[in-house]
Design a protein that fits this description.
single chain, mainly beta, 22-stranded antiparallel β-barrel, 4 helices
Length: 818
């Protein structure tokens, strides 16, 4: 730790002395003196404005200072010719030439800074100019005016982004890999700590763009073998009182009200975001299963549920501009959610008549029993986040220091009651009645810092560290109804216990980047030490893992000309077991299906290689990528069926994987105001593994494809249509069928383009289904789930501004992290 402090502090100390020395004012009587006052167009003083004297080529700052609280400034300089530049965030810079003589005093009087002139209309045009951009190690897709997601959430936005797919259980995959790290403004967030379903709490109107990093560099956390999805939120710092409000309603019930507000005056920018949501979402599915072993049976299950969710999120904070180049941000977020799911399940058991495995119901089977089950789950979650950020942008856009301290904490509880009635011809009605109580407390502390220093004309050095601590305590109790009384279930089953979890990940990294002729390169190395400890209080079982790993990254790009560029990259990544995978409790969703965690899970490791080619022209662009990925200890959920017909699903480190593919992403303006965007991902994945003496393998070829058509067909009218197709795929236990669904939206701009009224439809033909087969040696299972239904949403959004002020995205604040 002492060495770390030394290595970080000493360079910064020398840099601070260098900057201080460069800005020092001379007292020599031969110098000239410049003074004046900085004000805005309303006559109010502008404190902390940067006042700098450049050489005539404007390549070097020779002297500089900042305006005082009343806007006044004084500056001394040697005689000569200079360029004076006065600047402050959200204002147009003032610039003029000066010729100073020895001993001269120059009164510049009042320097009036004008507000930047970018209007709302110009911002809209800017957002649509480039749907896809390729950076050094990432691709960015502008959300822009994606009207199909208006009134929706981050999950709706991700549904329209190439390379990303979402499943019925909320799993987000990148190029078919669910080992994805999701960041909010470049930082981890407790919004996704317990699964990506929580992305539903981020309103779509707060999202500016989605960044996909398939081969992250060493500056990013090594978590996620599939790569990183970085959701960048709107961060609009304009003078005065500005923002937007929106309201939506829909069918099935989907109602919301929210606002994104900013108030910026002098050197403080206040921001407030809040969102209130109510949803009532129906779901349904069916399952057929047959089993042949010591006993032989078949059954059919029909499932219907209604999930009611209420949610309130608020984020409040402020940016304090210490100087033009230094920003201090303090923000806090509160998220309160409640969810009730009421499910009805009907089982029909059949007498198959012989010892065979069947794939469908036969008409000659006799019904031997019917079972009705009602399951009510009541969940509540409260999340809190306090964050302090500091950023110092030294002279030059590529020289900066950032530091971040983030403390997140919260509680989550879930109570479930399962009531069952069994009816048959040869017995009286009986039942299996059980209820569970889960109470969780968590805390997370993260401290990190990044330093970036230009090297010469074309180089860059970057280094940083991160300390991350996670604590979680989960108390799980299972009760069953015995003789009319609820009592704790048999402890020999191991259902009730208290589970504690501690994770500490410490990391150091460094990267070096630069140009060699027509080539750009970036080399990086990251070291991460992981300590994970778990314990079951009642049983005394636990685990302790401690490992140190190195994660290199290499990028090489070549620009043939302004329109054509190539890139080659490599990175090594890790996917640590997620908390909800290692919880050792048995979750009984119904009498026939159980999910069990695995505290012995090991991390996955992956090596990823990629070659990319980007070509763009005046009306469009295309990106082609070839990739290969090799993973070890790949985690999969394995389903096993016992003689009583109970299916148990458990995550295990099952297999190694070799995956390769080719991906295309393109956008093209067909005619004026008519734009077509599409993507196609063709890939193959081979997996091999063993679990409990059974060999599992798959050789799967599949594809995913998206199309988006946008048409601005009249003054203020906007139409958009989306289509998504995912091909069938073999799994290590069976098969997953393909899926095709459509969506669209129509919007009208109102009130001089300050407001938008939109109507959108999702899953137009009710075709978004999940069809899966599981083939085990003694059983066959076929299931179909529809986790959503055709939905309509009407949304109204209004943007407002207190004056003719411009936009300036300063990169911090607003909702959760940077």
């Amino acid at each position: 730790m002492k060495k770390l402090v030394f290595y970080v502090t000493i360079p910064l100390l020398f840099w601070g002395l260098f900057v201080s020395g460069g800005y020092a004012q001379s007292s020599n009587s031969e110098t000239a003196e410049i003074f004046g006052t900085v004000q805005d167009v309303g006559g109010e003083s502008v404190p902390n404005a940067t006042v700098a004297l450049y050489n005539q080529d404007e390549t070097e700052i020779l002297e500089g200072t900042s305006s005082k609280e009343d806007g006044s400034f004084t500056l001394q300089a040697e005689p000569g010719n200079y360029v004076l530049r006065v600047s402050y965030v959200s204002y147009q810079a003032h610039q003029e030439d000066l010729e100073l003589a020895a001993g001269e005093s120059v009164d510049l009087g009042t320097i009036e800074l004008l507000n930047e002139n970018a209007t709302l209309d110009e911002v809209i045009v800017e957002g649509e100019r480039s749907y896809m951009t390729m950076n050094f190690d990432s691709r960015t897709f502008s959300v822009g005016q994606d009207i199909t997601s208006l009134g929706g959430s981050a999950l709706d936005v991700l549904d329209n982004v190439p390379s990303i797919t979402t499943d019925f259980d909320g799993t987000v995959r990148l190029r078919g890999n669910q080992g994805v790290q999701i960041l909010i403004n470049g930082s981890p967030s407790n919004l996704v700590r317990n699964g990506t379903d929580a992305l539903g709490s981020i309103p779509a109107n707060l999202i500016k763009e989605v960044e996909i990093i398939t081969n992250p560099s060493a500056r990013y956390s090594a978590e996620g073998t599939g790569g990183i999805i970085n959701i960048k939120l709107v961060d609009d710092v304009r003078l005065g009182f500005n923002g937007s409000i929106q309201a939506n309603t829909g069918y099935p019930q989907d109602h919301g009200l929210g606002a994104n507000l900013n108030y910026h005056k002098n050197n403080i920018n206040w921001f407030l975001n809040f969102d209130l949501e109510y949803e009532n979402d129906p779901r349904q599915g069916r399952t057929f299963q047959s089993f042949s072993g010591d006993t032989t049976y078949a059954y059919n299950e029909n499932f219907e549920s209604v999930e009611t969710e209420k949610e309130f999120d608020i984020n409040f904070g402020g940016d304090y501009y210490i100087t033009q180049s230094q920003i201090l941000t303090l923000e806090t977020r509160v998220s309160i959610q409640s969810e009730v799911e009421d499910s009805d399940v009907r089982y029909t058991d059949y007498n198959t008549g012989n010892n065979q495995i069947y794939r469908e119901i036969r008409s000659d089977w006799d019904v031997i029993r019917e079972l009705n089950q009602n399951d009510i789950q009541d969940a509540r979650e409260n999340d809190y986040d306090v964050r302090l950020q500091y950023e110092n942008r030294f002279e030059g856009s590529d020289h900066r220091l950032t530091a971040d301290v983030d403390f997140e904490f919260g509680t989550e509880s879930q109570d479930a009651e399962l009531l069952e009635v069994v009816s048959s011809d040869d017995s009286s009605p009986s039942g299996f009645n059980r209820r569970t109580f889960s109470d969780e407390i968590y805390k997370e502390l993260r401290i990190d810092s990044d330093y970036r220093q230009p090297l010469g004309d074309n180089g860059r050095f970057e280094a940083g560290f991160r300390f991350n601590f996670d604590w979680m305590d989960n108390d799980y109790t299972v009760e069953e109804l015995v003789d009319g009384n609820w009592q704790i279930a048999d402890q020999q089953i191991g259902l009730s216990d208290n589970f504690t979890y501690f994770e500490n990940v410490n990391a150091l990294y460094s990267t070096l980047a630069g140009d060699v002729g027509v080539f750009n390169y970036q080399l990086g190395l990251r070291a991460e030490n992981t300590r994970i400890q778990t314990e079951l209080t009642e049983s005394g079982r636990g685990s302790d893992q401690n490992y140190l790993n190195l994660f290199p990254s290499v990028f090489l790009s070549y620009s043939l000309d302004e329109a054509n560029s190539f890139q080659v990259s490599y990175s090594r990544r890790i996917s640590r077991p997620r908390i909800w995978w290692i919880l050792p409790f048995t979750e009984i969703s119904d009498v026939r299906n159980r999910r069990v965690g695995n505290p012995e899970l090991r991390p996955e490791f992956g090596n990823s290689y990629e070659v990319g080619y980007l070509r763009h022209w005046e009306t469009g662009s295309i990106l082609t990528s070839l990739y290969y990925r090799y993973r070890t200890d790949v985690t999969e959920r394995i389903s096993t069926v016992d003689n009583n017909g109970i299916t148990t699903s458990q995550p295990v480190n099952l297999a190694t994987e070799k995956a390769w593919g080719i991906e295309f992403s393109a956008d093209q303006e067909l005619f004026d105001n008519l734009q077509l965007m599409g993507s196609l991902n063709l890939f193959q994945s081979d997996r091999n593994g063993e679990f409990q003496g059974v060999q599992y393998s798959s050789e799967s070829e599949s594809l995913t494809s998206r199309l988006r058509l946008r048409w601005r067909f009249a003054d203020g009218w906007n139409f958009q249509a989306n289509a998504f197709y995912r091909g069938a795929q073999q799994t290590t236990q069976g098969r997953r069928d393909g899926s095709l669904f459509f969506g669209g939206a129509l919007a009208k701009e109102l009130f001089n383009r300050k407001a938008t009224l939109s109507l959108n439809v999702r899953d137009l033909f009710n075709s978004r289904l999940s069809d899966r087969e599981i083939n085990n040696p003694n059983s066959y299972t076929q299931s179909r789930y529809a986790w959503s239904t055709r939905s309509f949403r009407l949304n109204f959004r209004y943007n407002f501004s207190s004056g003719n002020s411009g936009g300036n995205n300063r990169g911090g604040g607003g909702y959760s992290g940077r």
